[in-house]
Structures are given as C-alpha cells and as structure tokens.
Design a protein that fits this description.
Length: 270
C-alpha cells in the first residue's frame, strides 16, 4: 500500500506535511477544517476529489493541453519558435473577399475583372482572384463562418504563412479544376467565383490534422458531426449560388485534406 505523499505546505512554518492531517505536526497550525475523504484505487489510497477539486484539475489540464497545441502538434518548441497564436491569416482570408464584395456592390470594381467567365488562357491571374471575388452575400457569410472556425486552429499548428498559402492553393487549384472539368465535359465556358474551395480545403485540413487528437481525447477536440454538416453545406452551395462551382469546392477540399494528412505524417515522424 502506498504511503501518503508530503504535498501540503503549512502556511505558518512552511513545512511539508501529509495531506491526510488537519493540523501541522511541527507548529500545531490548523491546516484544514476536517480530514479529507479517502478512497482506494488499486493498492493506493488517495484523497477523494470533490467537485471543486475536479474542476480545478480539469481546468489545469486543459490549459496545459492548450499550451502544447500552441507550440505545434503537442510538441514543446524552443523559445522564439512558437507558431502563430493570433489568427492573422484567418482575418486576411475573411477581410479580402468582404472588402471585394463591398467594392463590387458599390460599383467601384467590376466583377468581370475577378471572376472566371469562359476560357482564361490569356489571363491566368484569374485563378488567384476568382476565389476572392464574391458576388453574393450569402456565399460570403457561409464561407466566412467555416474559415473563421477552422483557420485559427490551423494557424496554431501550421503558422499563419503556411495557412494562408494552403488557402491560396486550395482556392487557385479549385478554380483550375473548375475550368479543366468544364473544358473536358462541359461547354468550355466556365463560370466560377467564391471561396468555397478555400473553405472546404481548410475544413478538410482541419479534420485531417485534428482527427488524431480527437481519437486521443474525444471530449476536448472538434465535433465531427458539425464538420460533416459544414462540408455538406459547402458542397450544396452550387445549388443556390450560380458562381459557386462544385468542382472548385471538391478540388479545394482534396488539396486541403492531402496537405493536412501530409502534415500529420510529418508530425508522427518527428
């Protein structure tokens, strides 16, 4: 049977005493009003935790896990090498399409300068601008909510620059897929715009990276049902919004999921 641990410090004399006593054996100072309740766990006797003690312990463990996650995939990094704790990339990814939408509504910008309308052989820069050219407020709201939900967690694990480049790749490759599929099986006149590829890519990367953490601690991770509902809404957007291309969303999700899975493998090898 394990003996009691000397883990209580007397406030009067500073001596370490057993947590099972009510008075300090060295100076007689009363440490607690009554003796703690004890419980047996295997061959060990320990103090039974009350509701307040359990809450304090869970809060301390949660803060410790949050500090480890901010350091990147649960690994402690040297000082100065911590990954991003401020969601800078998330703010930028939401602010750019919001500003573009306001300027489009104010007729300051022309939507034809951003979106994909037909072949883009002579204007390849449209693959980068089309994901941020939003002609509809509903599309902006839905994609913005998903980006805001997934972006900060990705930035804590990958960093702001890597997260922004990931979103840019998901959006651009999604638009490239939309044009390619329309050219192969369509009328070669693609109509695509909006960040549904970015949102689905970040969501897929979010799930791929956090899934091992959810398996380790299901109570302190993402909700797979909520993630599935968000993915279903994003995939159904082309039914409601004309410029939202389904192939752009699917390709963006595949790119994000592949990048997230690659990052997870790199973590395991590290």
């Amino acid at each position: 049977m394990a003996g009691p641990e000397l883990s209580v410090v007397c406030r009067n004399c500073g001596s370490e005493v057993s947590p099972y006593v009510t008075e300090c054996p060295y100076c007689g100072t009363r440490i607690r009003k009554r003796a703690p309740r004890l419980e047996r766990e295997g061959d060990e006797i320990r103090i039974r935790e009350g509701r307040r003690e359990k809450k304090l312990r869970r809060d301390a463990e949660r803060r410790e896990r949050a500090d480890e996650q901010r350091a990147g995939f649960g690994r402690s990094l040297p000082r100065g090498e911590e990954l991003a704790t401020k969601p800078i990339a998330t703010i930028v990814l939401i602010a750019i399409p919001a500003i573009v939408y306001v300027l489009l509504e104010a007729a300051v910008l022309d939507a034809q300068d951003f979106v994909i309308l037909g072949p883009v052989d002579s204007e390849p820069w449209r693959y980068l601008t089309a994901p941020f050219g939003i002609p509809n407020a509903g599309m902006l709201f839905i994609c913005g909510v998903v980006i805001a939900a997934c972006g900060p967690a990705l930035e804590r694990r990958l960093g702001s620059i890597a997260t922004f480049l990931l979103a840019l790749a998901c959006g651009a490759l999604g638009m490239l897929a939309a044009v390619g599929v329309d050219k192969a099986i369509g009328d070669d006149f693609a109509v695509a715009a909006g960040p549904n590829g970015i949102a689905l890519g970040l969501l897929a990367a979010y799930v791929a990276i956090l899934e091992p953490e959810r398996r380790a601690d299901p109570d302190d991770s993402y909700d797979p049902i909520a993630a599935g509902v968000a993915a279903a809404v994003l995939l159904a957007m082309p039914i409601v919004f004309a410029f939202s291309d389904p192939w752009a969303g699917i390709a963006g999700g595949l790119v994000g999921g592949l990048c997230g899975y690659t990052a997870t493998l790199a973590r395991r090898r590290a």
